[in-house]
Write a structure and sequence with these properties.
Layout lengths: L1 H19 L3 H15 L3 H14 L4 H13 L3 H14 L6 H11 L3 H14 L3 H13 L3 H14 L4 H13 L3 H13 L2 H4 L4 H12 L1
Length: 212
């Protein structure tokens, strides 16, 4: 799902960004940003975006883009400032609140994360937003709301292995063992560990639970 979000973000920014950037040299810098992001060269991408923001200080898209780069570089407090600036410049911008909510979750600020995901869902009820709000509810031990959200996410994106992993964790928390193990198997069938190896610990814990 995160991969889908990244592709969506890049398509959005490619389109909107180049309509704002008229100068050919600036376009060259912007093209370099895309290459740096593709290669996960976050510091270089940030430097180019700093240059562009000096030329276009009122560009919500560029603030959003830099926020995304900072978020991928695990600099959550800094990326929140950029997402907030993007939202102030363009309140209707899609996915900005979802990305800011993700950063808030990483910082353990669950109430702020839920507020952002809820605001995003109001205008853009995507599977990604439901999935992430569900995870925050799970971390807050509000399992009923977590389950409602993750079911909506799966309904919209039934081939997302992360959602099945999250629902398995929710079922484990409320001791619905059969359902938890079924969702773990589904996540494995969708190759969650191949696509997202960082979830190895969650899957291993679920495996132990299912064998107990």
């Amino acid at each position: 799902m995160k991969k889908i979000l990244i592709v969506t973000i890049l398509l959005l920014i490619n389109y909107v960004g180049f309509t704002q950037i008229k100068n050919s040299k600036s376009k060259d810098i912007y093209t370099e940003v895309q290459k740096f992001i593709k290669n996960k060269q976050w510091k270089q991408a940030e430097q180019n975006l700093n240059t562009l923001l000096k030329l276009y200080p009122n560009s919500a898209v560029l603030y959003f883009k830099r926020g995304y780069v900072l978020e991928m570089d695990l600099r959550y407090e800094e990326c929140i400032r950029d997402f907030s600036k993007a939202i102030s410049l363009k309140p209707e911008m899609r996915t900005a609140r979802t990305n800011r909510g993700f950063a808030y979750r990483k910082l353990g600020e669950y109430e702020k994360a839920i507020t952002d995901f809820t605001a995003e869902i109001t205008v853009n009820p995507s599977a990604y937003s439901y999935e992430h709000r569900s995870l925050v509810y799970y971390l807050s031990k509000d399992y009923e709301k977590a389950l409602i959200d993750i079911n909506k996410s799966i309904d919209q994106a039934p081939k997302n292995p992360i959602a099945y992993k999250t629902r398995a964790l929710i079922y484990k928390a409320i001791d619905f063992k059969e359902k938890a193990c079924k969702d773990r198997q589904k996540a494995m069938k969708l190759k969650i560990l191949k696509k997202y190896p960082k979830y190895k610990t969650d899957i291993s814990q679920l495996k132990i639970y299912c064998k107990s």
